[in-house]
């Protein structure tokens, strides 16, 4: 299976996502520069964290116009799994591939710490291997993670089961204390209507090894592998090393 | 031609920065300041043959990039020829 | 109307003395042009020339079998095995951080990062050592909030984790905050790139941000005290662009892989001037540039302004012949433009042209190696003998130990810095094995089994009370911190923050501190590979506590053997390594409870310190120590409390009694004395003997003082219970102390 990691000017967590896929998950990984127009033969796409274009104007506002985004949209429309992490999530929001927008953390401070999120639904490529209600301990690192959508949009997301991850406290309760940035309804991540495009503010790629503090994020990447395996025609070998630039 | 674009958060969106600024002003003695909303201000220098054309270019720019319609609204002001309004 | 360069007013405005001016005339054989005067003024400033300090810095130990690059380049480098090098340095940005805290701190981060990647190393970690006035002042809070936000804003955006550091507070820093930033990068040991210009005819390129008028005379400002007139000085603070630096970093590392460069240097203090003449001097060559080719973002800039501008995020590089197009193409990929602005020449001169006309022509060595060298007079200050007197009997009846412990944990210097470091991304690059707030920061080196432990330390009170011993204690503390993590100290960098060197007692502090630092580094076998000197940290004649910060890099051969601070499991045995004496001089206890900085710093036996560090490293390598934490501010009581924080089962410890002969003070000296060369470690039950034998084998005193468990912090002194508090109660005080001081008054960032 091949994961394409899109690199925008200013992306920082591209190497972390690559490492998690290549060294921990042991699947194929390749970088795709934002100026390219094709994702190549990617089976899944990751838009990594960082500060694309310095977060100037608004986070993700300029990156959404990068040449590669047209192919990301095509890939998503065709049902391909797309994971937007932190800045990647912000790019998906600005590109309209996910509904809503990001505001500055209500504390007005950048927050880097481990938080707990509860998996609300397991029928997406990135939560398939999770248990419903499972609490994952993963790091956040953002100054603008305060997810916002108008009340009717939020109501629709809830009804439609599109809220995938919710901030909770260590005991799994949805509380204000457990919400690090003031996001509406403690939303930490969500998916699109078709359930193949997922965005979340926490960093699963930073939570794949116990030595770093938590390995709870690995299950999200393992979910993608499982999801893909179910769909790959029998007899097709799962590709190893990527043919994309590494 | 110079065109000004003012981008502000929609009224329904919570503005913690504006709130913080208001609190800081109160601490400094500005008791009569009831509220503050913080926004962004852009000055576009546009090559256009008429103020209407310049306004249209700025509006398109705001729609496409300068403002995020989910959370922001904007207004456009064309600077009168020969100086500021 | 061109000002008369030889007038007193012009010379003084340039921060030069009449003698220095005459020396310039002698070197050139004529009067300098205004542009040349500007160039000399920045290169001969204290900040760039180290004229007051060079003669003393030469006495520091800078060599060793692992040293790949010592002082003299943009950063130092040591061999860490597997064909890799650790490239690191610490630098100050003190004066700008007082004038504009956010940008001053941000550009300090930007500057040190450039110093690392200009050597061909990918930066992988940042630390910072900060000093502020007391936090009850709104101005100090605003300053600190701005500095922290600036460090966060820049470091987070460029994606390099800030994994550790230290912050201390004292009145003397109120008008002179200290912002020292440390950066570590990794490169292949045989691919370190120097800042050298050589090869006659080779093309000199400029790449990065356009040049503007920001920061002109930043170097001269850093070399002068503040006074009421400082506010009037044209604001000389540069504005940083971390996004541009990220592009520059990636593009430069990519170019360096192609081996198409002769040399490269970043434009930091004194911008274009410093990079051209230093690269030329190192290569024994001349550098000729035409300023009209320099990309400019303001109109009408003069050669003077262009040469002195300190606009950020700019690099100067020399390409190998025939490789120019290749270099430019790589920069274009990152939307950067490498502009050909000059050539390497054989005449050893810095020649500046404007549209073909020569406006400045100076031998490179005149600006670098031949800069003035001063042996400033120094003499022991009058305050010293008196300040070193400490009579516990005069302090009155001490408060109960438990209350003292609570107050120390609430003191900002001791309290948790979480309010600060949670604003720093400390996890990006997925290498951080030990997070901030837990002693030395530790980052793993991917594709190897190794990790590096990093610590920056200095106790300014100790240096004030005895600069020689105080500086040694700084070296010892930084090395001890990395040793606690299980790392062997292999290199150091220093940032020497002092007041006005033209005052004999300040110069005495400096000289004695450098002597002490050198002796400690030799005894502990830690070479100094580079660093920074920041003088004139004074406002209205009042200087900072002398603060020579040490940044030590330690090597852990097996990353899986990293030892952390918190106690692990109930039943584990707690041991105290080292010996304790009646040493409250310069202590946090004295400062926080009595408002005093008096006495003599704790004695330091460097052989014992070295032995302790050997025990710490061996205990980690053997997997024997389950936790380790050194004793520092606040003494062993604070150490033990901190080991209990973070969700541990608490501990019960009985400390060997320290006798003071003064009624009531035995408990205080036992719990809060700051004797050096001590650490608290824990081992699994049943392994006590092994730990004791390990320590004894190195001649390190060691005693089992208690056990992990109980949910409380229970401390006894000589068998008598003196502290019995729930862990959460103490942790709440320690964790909330700094945040509480800010939340009450929101500071607008």
| Number of E strands of chain B | 3
The total of helices of chain B stands at 2
CATH superfamily of chain A: Class I glutamine amidotransferase (GATase) domain
The outline of chain A comes out as: globular
Name some characteristics of this structure.
heterotrimer; B: 85 residues; alpha+beta; Mth169, Chain: A; 3-stranded antiparallel beta sheet; 2 helices; 3 strands; C: 749 residues; 7-stranded mixed beta sheet; 28 strands; globular; disordered C terminus
Description:
The complex is a heterotrimer of chains A (246), B (85) and C (749). Chain A is α/β, with parallel strands linked by helices and 246 residues long. Chain A has helices at 14-25, 68-77, 87-94, 151-159, 218-231; strands at 2-7, 28-33, 44-47, 82-85, 101-103, 111-119, 135-142, 146-148, 163-168, 187-191, 197-200. In chain A, the strands form 2 sheets. A 9-stranded mixed β-sheet of chain A has the order 2-1-3-4-11-10-9-6-7, sandwiched between helices. In chain A, β3, α2 (68-77) and β4 (82-85) form a beta-alpha-beta unit. Chain A is globular, with a radius of gyration of 16 Å. With 85 residues, chain B is of the alpha+beta class. Chain B is built from 2 helices and 3 strands, in the order βαβαβ. Chain B has a 3-stranded antiparallel β-sheet, with helices on one face. Chain B is elongated. In chain C, the strands form 5 sheets. A 7-stranded mixed β-sheet of chain C has the order 8-10-7-11-9-12-13, sandwiched between helices. In chain C, strands 23-25-22-26-24-27-28 form a 7-stranded mixed β-sheet. Chain C starts with 7 loop residues before the first helix and ends in a 6-residue tail after the last helix. Residues 231-235 and 745-749 of chain C have low confidence and may be disordered. Chains A and B meet through loops of A and α1 of B.
